[in-house]
Each structure stands twice: as C-alpha cells, then as structure tokens.
Amino acid sequence: MTGTGFEYTLTRTLDAPVDQVWAAWTTADRYAQWTGAEDVTFDVRPGGAWSSVMVIPGGARIPLSGTYTEVVPHQRLVWGMTVPGREEPVLMTLDLSADGDRTKVTLSQTFDAAEERDQAEQGSNMLLDSLTNYLATA
C-alpha cells in the first residue's frame, strides 16, 4: 500500500497459532464460518481471484470480489477489492507474526476520504471480533 490518504491500522494478538489464523483467512469454508459470508471462492495466489457475498445485520447481501496481489504463506496477504465507482481496487493488507501459540494480526488499509476509512475500520474491527470468537471455539 502506497500513496497518501486516510489510513487505519488495527493490531490484535489472538490465542491461536499462525497456521490456524492463516487458514481462517485463506480457506473458503472456514472464512465463511467466521464472517457469515456466502458463496465464498478463493484462489489464494498472486493474481488469483476471490469473491464472496457478505450478509450484514438486517439481511442485506453485498457481493464482493477482487484479486490477491501478494501472498506470503503464514505471514502476509494483500488483496484488492473492486469498489463500484473507483478505478483502482481498494487494497487490504494482513500481516501475521507468530508468538508461540499466539498470533499477532495487523490489518491495514488506505482510503481517499476519512469517511471511507472510518467505515472500513469499523468493519475490520467487527471482522477481527468475529475471527477472535471463531478461533476460541475452533
């Protein structure tokens, strides 16, 4: 992620080994379990496509898609998401760092406007909450 704009970075340490956290982000059926997404397809490699339909509270269905730009197994995942009205995809970066049986997770994104950033940051916090709950019962 380069450029200027409005960025957020979220960091959490999860009570799960890095391989479990990696699998939660990169295995379609596991991702669907903790995000509540439907119709999830992943081709986790640079240039590989992904898609899902997020079901948000209230039942609205939001189709999402994009491509992976960087994949370093068990360490780093960077993917773009196609956003209507934008020429360039919005990139999200996930960095993982093993700490024994725990994993430090860092999510970051950059946006052109503060409002976009704030909405994405709220959504990412909700994702990390869901991931934390999923891993506690996995």
UniProtKB/TrEMBL annotation:
Coiled-coil regions, chain positions: none
Q: Note the InterPro entries from the entry.
A: ASHA1/2-like_C, START-like_dom_sf
> Boundaries of each Activator of Hsp90 ATPase homologue 1/2-like C-terminal domain copy?
15-135
The record's Pfam families line, in alphabetical order, gives:
AHSA1 (PF08327)
Q: Which domain of life is it from?
A: Bacteria
What family classification does the UniProt entry report for this protein?
Belongs to the AHA1 family.
Please state what the protein is called. Answer: ATPase
Question: What organism is this sequence from?
Answer: Couchioplanes caeruleus subsp. caeruleus
**Which classification does the entry list for the species?**
Bacteria, Bacillati, Actinomycetota, Actinomycetes, Micromonosporales
